[in-house]
Prior knowledge:
Blueprint: H1 3-35, H2 42-68
Amino acid sequence: MTSSTRSRFVSVAAFAITGLTAACGGVAIGSVLAEEPLRGDDGMAVLGLLGCVAVAGGSLMCAAGAATDAD
């Protein structure tokens, strides 16, 4: 495995793990919001959900870009 290939693999793995972790966090926050009645602090939970979605989408797009990046 060359240095370039190893670097690409590490980049893809790091972005993919970050994206999947954020996606799981978004699912967890969404599940809590769906099951519990509305409360005063739901706005912060929604912001957390949006943050998880943004990080998941961005990280997975970066992983896809790093995986398909031509030398």
